[in-house]
Amino acid sequence: MNGSCWYECSRGCEYRAPFTGVTYRCRGCDGLLDVAHDLDSLKKRTAGDWKTLFAERAASSEWLYTSGVWGKYEWVYPPVEKENIVSLGEGNTPLLPLARLGEQLGVPDLWIKQCGTNPTGSFKDLGMTVLVSAANQMIATGQPIRALACTSIGDAASSLAAYCAVVGIPAVVFLPRGRVSAAQLAQPVAHGALVVALDTDFDGCMKIVQHVTADGSIYLADSMNSLRIEGQKTVAIELVQQLCWSVPDWIILPSGNLGNVAALGRGFLMMQELGLIDRLPRIACALEENANPLDRSCRSGFSEYEPITAQETLASAVQIGNPVSVERAEKILCAFDGVVEQVGEGELAHVAAQAYGAGFRYYPQAGVALAALLKLRLRGEIGPSERVVVISTEQGGRRTGLTAGYHEQAFDGAQPPPANKIVRLPADTDVVAEWVVQALDQLE
Amino acid sequence: MNGSCWYECSRGCEYRAPFTGVTYRCRGCDGLLDVAHDLDSLKKRTAGDWKTLFAERAASSEWLYTSGVWGKYEWVYPPVEKENIVSLGEGNTPLLPLARLGEQLGVPDLWIKQCGTNPTGSFKDLGMTVLVSAANQMIATGQPIRALACTSIGDAASSLAAYCAVVGIPAVVFLPRGRVSAAQLAQPVAHGALVVALDTDFDGCMKIVQHVTADGSIYLADSMNSLRIEGQKTVAIELVQQLCWSVPDWIILPSGNLGNVAALGRGFLMMQELGLIDRLPRIACALEENANPLDRSCRSGFSEYEPITAQETLASAVQIGNPVSVERAEKILCAFDGVVEQVGEGELAHVAAQAYGAGFRYYPQAGVALAALLKLRLRGEIGPSERVVVISTEQGGRRTGLTAGYHEQAFDGAQPPPANKIVRLPADTDVVAEWVVQALDQLE
User: Fold this and answer.
1) Which residue of A has its CA nearest to B400?
2) Of A45, B268, B293, B406, which is least packed with CB atoms within 10 Å of its CB?
3) Are B440 and A197 in contact (CB < 8 Å)?
């Protein structure tokens, strides 16, 4: 593979570092780093040629291009050698029209980008394949990296543990004790990661992992590592490609650590710079009201930020009060005429139940995004004929408390829930047939 | 959409029925039906042209071709009108090389077809999209169908409920009480299906659903309905396409009701008939020893079959003693020089743990297939340089009992399990850093 990239300060300092080193922050101002690409070199291919190439890769039988991330490797992380790439076939996930739900919500041109069908069940895989591949290459070329470590409320831990297991690199994951579901814990444990539950919250875990990885012998796999962002950026390219290279009016995504907002924005800006698109979408960052550190920032035009202590929420993956990518995200929200919308527990539970009833099982985080969409639509920020893409960041089914709880009427939603109960019957054909006919009569 | 197909008796009777009617069995001999295609019409396109067309569809931005099933609609169910298709973007799932696990098992050229990344988390989606689309079209053209019904140990119920919810058709699912995990129950409940738990096993549920659907007002969505098989058949085409149209030496798949064996075989036979491939793979049907109704059949060269009463197994999705597609599957196993391999609980738990340790989370059913692979390799049936594709039929993580149990050492495996424990530490950076270094020292 060819092409070049390097690290630069995300705040715009002069600092640069080669991609071959272990480095996470600017040595001048301590800001986070971004991956910079040699755009002049990339511009040697026309926009049309890039589109054709990306389409050819999607149609290719070469196994590496099963991955939507590596099918765009020149834009992502070109220095990695093919033999060092660690892929599980991430990306290339469906973008689906949600006609029935869209009509219910007053936004008929509604689409969902289902990142939950990624290999380990979440959006995180898009970035983790890049980070683990880069670490694998550093280890192959003699860097003394003993393990990779990250903090997680579930999904990132599963993703890191899986990718590390593919090539046998030790993984260490730090989780806030009692905040991660059993189904989510089962993944990193089974993949053989060192799983450490700490007596603190997510933000507390973030501090500790930064200390543990400070000397470089354990490589930091958190989203403050910009390699994660570079992989996640492909979600923007992929969804525009799936819309025949037309840009939607709005993208709505649920966010916690805000890395996905930064990634989405970077993807669109790169497409614009290289001429593949000629306008940008608006971005709505959907947050849970118990975990909204952007509230003050948003009211001040993204100039005044202050971390908070996040409270418990059903959408446990977004319970973060001091998001590591806040500066990156604020910059993107400014550039994309962005908005921040917060939703309550009842709102997200109700809309999520509605989405499930329309055939989709991507929440609670997607519920936060859908509830935000509904609020933005109701107050006219989003118009009835605008095209909206909601990003669903993880698969449904692992946080079953919400589903089960909802159908036991445990939530105070805006409207009473259309609860559904399991019926137990004897194995008697006549009894069963009679019950089914009566139940269908009631539905009609 | 154009092209034609009809129903014919799977046992070879003269019986034919039009695709527009509600029909499941031959009126002559009561055998199951197959979907027959107008092969002469399909042969008007050359094999090379089909390959090009399928590649173009994979690269297309048209949303319908997000679906690997509908990207091959001429081969699957051509009479359905596009506006009646109910798709969630099923198929086009990754086929990945398993180098590290393959070397551990003595089969370096090992691949996994990960059907667990389908929209509702299982292989069943490939067939359900076809069946629900066909039913949707029948309803649109005035057939008096009130609901769709199926029996399930989990995956089929989730799939039917989701596809029905997309278009608002009522779904009724019958489950054997106490055999389905909470995470699996949550899906059909949340999708608004009528969920009926019956005091019997899977085979008992199958009998009842056939009675309930007998008059045609409730359409049968079980795998005895050949529309399911037609959609599932695309897994064969897709995996060969992903291998650049080269046929692997072996395909190993876990089976319960045996519809997937029939579907896989039909896909290969159709590719051979239309000239896309020139040989067939061998097929190994992997069964759990507590649920192996094919044992006697296999010993007799697939001539003597007798149903059994299946016992409890970790791989609950295959706990079926009287598989509905047994005749179809026996025919395929004869044609593909097939074998049946049964594995025990300890064997499947151990190999599944090994697979998890290599980064894959697709079991317990995939564990049955991998354990069968290991046995076939050890006794020399599969050679060390043969190319083997294992079909993983569902996502991991919903049946967490196995993972958690294994790492609590609850199983008697052939070898003691490499159990992994979660460690709880205080939020103290020095304590954490010291623990991590010691743990990594022990790993080395």
Assistant:
1) A183
2) A45
3) no
Task: Provide Rg for chain B, Cα atoms.
Answer: 22
Whether A147 contacts chain B with CB within 8 A: yes
Closest CA to A369 of A284, A304, A312: A284
- The predicted model gives A397-410 an average pLDDT of 49
| pLDDT tens figures, B311-333 | 887 777 777 888 888 999 999 99
Q: In B, residues 368-397, which contact A (CB 8 Å cutoff)?
A: 395-397
CA closest to A161 among chain B residues = B359
Which two structure tokens, joined as six digits, stand for B207? 């009998």
d(CA B21, CA B24): 9
| Cα(B322)–Cα(B307) distance, integer angstroms | 5
Domain boundaries along the sequence of chain B: 95-120+229-407
What is the enclosing helix (H) or strand (E) of B332?
Answer: helix B326-335
How far apart are the C-alpha atoms of A305 and A33, rounded to whole Å?
Answer: 19
CB-CB contact of A288 with A340 (8 Å):
no
Q: Does B423 touch chain A (CB under 8 A)?
A: yes
Question: What separation in angstroms does the CA of B227 have from each of A122, A146, B347?
Answer: 31, 52, 34
Subunit contact B191:A429, Cβ cutoff 8 A? no
- Helical axes A326-335 vs A259-273, angle rounded to 10°: 40
B82–A contact, CB cutoff 8 A: no
As given in the structure block, the two tokens for residue A76 are 């992502």
Q: Which of A121, A149, A195 sits opposite B397 (nearest CB)?
A: A121
- Residue B223 corresponds to which amino acid? S
Q: Is B104 on the interface with A (CB under 8 A)?
A: no
Give chain B's end-to-end CA distance (angstroms, integer).
60
SS3 A33: strand
Chain B hits for A425, Cβ within 8 Å: 196-199
Selected from 3.40.50.80, 3.20.20.190, 3.30.70.270, 3.40.50.1100, the CATH number assigned to the domain covering A95-120+229-407 reads 3.40.50.1100
B425:A59 CB<8 A:
no
Q: What is the per-residue pLDDT across A209-246, written as a single tens digit (0 to 9) for each?
A: 999 999 999 999 998 899 999 999 999 999 999 999 99
Span A61-84, average pLDDT: 93
Pairwise CA distance, residues A95 & B185, whole Å: 26
Report the C-alpha dihedral over residues A207, A211, A217, A219, rounded to 10 degrees: 10
- pLDDT value, residue A286: 94
pLDDT at B389 > cutoff 70:
yes
Q: Does B27 touch chain A (CB under 8 A)?
A: no
Tally A–B CB contacts below 8 A. Answer: 292
- Residue ranges of alpha helices (H) inside B148-233 are 155-167, 182-190, 202-212, 226-232
Contact between B296 and B306 (Cβ < 8 Å): yes
